[in-house]
Structures are given as C-alpha cells and as structure tokens.
Amino acid sequence: MNEREIWDLSAIRRRLASLHGREYWRSIEELVDTAGFEELLHREFPRYASLWPEGLSRRKFLQVTGASLALAGLSSCMKQPDEEIVPYVKSPELIVPGEPLYFATAFVLGGYARGVIATSHMGRPTKLEGNPDHPASLGAADAITQASILSLYDPDRSQVVTHRGTISTWTDFQQALDRKGDRIRILTGTVTSPTLEAQIDGMRARFPHSRWHQYEPINEDAVREGAIMAFGKAV
Fold this sequence. Notes:
The protein has 235 residues and is an alpha+beta fold. It has nine helices and seven strands, in the order H-H-H-H-H-E-E-E-H-E-E-H-E-H-E-H.
C-alpha cells in the first residue's frame, strides 16, 4: 500500500461527512482505517518493531533487561571500610551544624577583584552572591560570579608537583628549571598584582629566553568599552 492510497484526502472528507458525536475520529491514523493501519495496530511499537526479533516478547525483553541491570549493580557493589564519626575535640568558633556562615571576600576576574558574600556550611563555601557594599556589584551577581565557586572543587587542580602525569618534588622541579629555564613558557591570566608581576619579571631576568603569555577566556572588554562610550574613559 503506497502513501497516496493511505492519505487520500478526498476519501477522508467523505468519511468525515458521515460521522457525528462519539463516532468522530481521535487521530489521523485511526481515521484512515485501512488494512495497512490495521496491521500497525497489532504491533505494540510499530516504529521500532523491526529492531527486535519477532520471537522476542516485551515480557522476555524486560526480564533480560532487569537481570542485566541487577548483575551490573551487584558487580559494582563493595563493602565500604568501617569509619568512625568523631566529634570535635575543640569546636571551631561560630560553626553550628546545619547553620550557614557568611563571609565578605572577593574573587578575581580579568585581573580585578569582585567583592562577594560567600555562604559557608561547616567550613565549605557553597554559594557566592554580590556584596551590596561593593561598588562594582552593589549586591548583584552574574552567572560567572556564581559559577566561580566551582573552581574551589575542581578535581583537576594540582595539589602536588607533577612531571608528565607523575607525582614529583619541588627539588626535581628546581633542578629541571635550572637545566631548561630558557625554554620555559609561563601562561597566566591578566596580572594586576605588583608583587606577582615583579616575581615573573625576576624569573624572566634570570631566564631571558623564557616567554610569558597572558590569556583570559572571559574578560570585561564590553564593560570597558561601554564606560568609554558613556564617560569618555574607562572609569
């Protein structure tokens, strides 16, 4: 049966003219009421029926799927080591379980600090909002500000010295620096700290062939240009 025979609009209109009340159709497929459509009705999942063997029933499929999930769950189960919950010997000041603490702090974007209010639970910062007393935000917080807290929980942050993916030491790093200092490439964001800039300049003076690259994936160029348009300079 071809598509033209199934969707014969003139035949559909004639059939509609003779229907009334509860005899009205509920869908186009039901209205067609052809032999091809009757065949589709006997298949529970007509669109995907060809993907399954004819002999595989839905009940059998669910049994096999359930067994597979159960086996996968069992293979991932393991006995956790015994742990003890020990209370504070000396409770930290102001920390009450379940009660948040708020701190005025800042995070750096494009080399400049933004004043924020950090919400902390049991010593762990959980949310950042704008500081209403800070002139740069006046209490507002954009998506970048709120998302910056994730950097404190970044699993890729280096906690030790590594060399080609292997844990190393500061002594090995210093020795490698002395041997290959002229091939060093320093990659940072925008640096506005005089102390950090002086340290980088001192290192470049020691290794004159080293290079310093600065890159910011997100900056405030649009804000700066808007200030220039409004005030004539980057205020």
